[in-house]
Design goal:
Layout lengths: L1 H4 L2 H29 L4 H30 L6 E4 L3 E5 L1 H26 L3 H7 L6 H27 L6 H21 L1 H10 L2 H24 L3 E2 L2 E2 L5 H28 L1
Antiparallel strand pairs: 1-2, 2-3, 3-4
């Protein structure tokens, strides 16, 4: 296990996944803060911390469930047409469905943030909370929705890294735990940073579109899909890591340019 975690692929996957988990958790932090702010001031900090810890436990449980389904590799149906051949398995179905979901959810989120930036916050603000338990229930419900994105992203980033699914599962759990504790320690600064630089969140959602497309091609590859006699290949994860690293580097340059411009002004 330790040897696997120290490999370059595992370290890159862990760093990238932790970063994306934090970016994906920004909305969660905002909504948790909105829910916590409806409580008395003495309970707000407690609600935020407990809410994020419960969110971590919930995501780990869901990871075990999804990883079990991903392990179902054996095909249960074969489609053989003159122009299309597919060996369908539960693993391929989950990866394909997850890829479609990530692409749909990411494009929808980008549209809402551009056209309706306060839509989700307004809907949560309408719900009054009278106790800590009510706040925690609402926080868990909110996190469950966002956990789907997070878990599918984790599966997409770690699928195929190691033939032993337990190793990949451990890598996903480590990334979730690290990201949650970072969010607990820096919830307010992270939220303020993203509010100041909303392009980071848009960038994270754009990464999800790439991951969604990768999941779809991975599902086709695992199903041994042949389209008009051509086999569908998997996209090497190194390409994805490079695209993410390069985009972050460009965004970092933008931050430096904007900072210098503000100083000059």
């Amino acid at each position: 296990m330790l040897d696997f975690l120290l490999t370059s692929d595992a370290i890159m996957a862990l760093l990238t996944l932790t970063f994306l988990e934090i970016i994906l958790g920004i909305d969660n932090i905002v909504f948790i803060s909105i829910a916590a702010n409806k409580l008395p001031e003495r309970q707000q900090s407690k609600a935020t911390t407990i809410g994020l810890l419960l969110a971590m436990i919930q995501r780990i449980i869901l990871l075990f469930f999804v990883t079990f389904l991903i392990g179902l590799k054996e095909p249960f149906y074969n489609l053989n047409l003159s122009w299309l051949q597919i060996s369908v398995s539960w693993q391929a179905i989950i990866l394909f469905s997850g890829g479609l979901f990530l692409i749909f959810k990411s494009t929808s989120e980008i549209h809402e943030k551009v056209e309706l930036p306060h839509h989700d916050e307004d809907s949560i603000n309408k719900k009054k909370l009278k106790s800590l338990s009510q706040a925690l229930v609402q926080i868990l419900l909110i996190d469950f929705i966002f956990s789907i994105d997070s878990i599918l992203t984790a599966v997409g980033m770690t699928n195929g890294l190691h033939e032993n699914h337990n190793y990949n599962l451990m890598l996903m759990i480590i990334a979730v735990v690290i990201s949650i504790f970072i969010m607990i320690g820096f919830a307010n600064p992270i939220r303020k940073f993203i509010n100041t630089h909303p392009s980071m969140q848009i960038l994270g959602l754009a990464f999800l579109i790439l991951i969604g497309f990768m999941l779809i091609t991975e599902a086709a590859h695992l199903s041994h899909t042949e389209l008009f006699g051509n086999t569908v290949g998997a996209i090497p994860k190194g390409y994805l890591y490079f695209a993410i690293a390069f985009s972050l580097f460009v965004e970092f340059l933008n931050f430096r340019i904007q900072k210098k411009q503000r100083k000059l002004e």
